[in-house]
């Protein structure tokens, strides 16, 4: 009798357009860059819109996969990059709006 093969499930985090694979480094346990965003050619408005679109994808993923830690991983990698421009502002604006909608009056 041959061993049964277990089918690998697709990795839903890897499908997010702002996540990239990276070699493990130091104390960073994840082989992923959770904020692999190239913004060199965008205008500020385009950057904000792109960040908002990324945030919606992240929120959808977090809900579907019950993956609340994703936000912390993303923000950690944003901080590591040392850049806070339109993409980051648009991204966090969507999360702030979602948090405010969930707050009691």
Number of helices: 3
- Helix content range: 40-55%
Task: Tell me the count of domains.
Answer: 1
Order of helices and strands: EEHHH
Assembly state here?
single chain
What fraction of the residues are assigned to beta strands by DSSP?
under 5%
Characterize the largest beta sheet: strand count, sense, and whether it forms a barrel: 2 strands, antiparallel
Radius of gyration: 16 Å
Q: Tell me, what's the shape?
A: globular
**Helix-strand makeup class:** mainly alpha
Total number of strands: 2
Describe this structure as you would to a colleague:
This protein is mainly alpha-helical and 105 residues long. The chain has one domain (13-32, 41-101). Helices cover 49% and strands 4% of the residues. It is built from 3 helices and 2 strands. The chain has a two-stranded antiparallel sheet with strand order 1-2. Helix 1 (44-65) packs across helix 3 (86-101). The longest helix is centred in the middle third of the chain and has 22 residues, at 44-65. The mean pLDDT is 87.
């Amino acid at each position: 009798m041959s061993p049964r093969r277990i089918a690998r499930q697709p990795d839903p985090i890897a499908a997010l357009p702002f996540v990239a694979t990276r070699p493990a480094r130091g104390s960073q346990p994840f082989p992923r860059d959770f904020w692999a965003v190239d913004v060199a050619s965008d205008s500020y408005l385009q950057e904000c819109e792109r960040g908002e679109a990324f945030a919606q994808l992240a929120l959808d993923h977090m809900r579907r996969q019950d993956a609340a830690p994703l936000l912390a991983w993303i923000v950690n990698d944003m901080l590591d990059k040392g850049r806070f421009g339109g993409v980051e502002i648009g991204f966090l604006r969507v999360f702030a709006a979602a948090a405010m909608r969930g707050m009691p009056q």
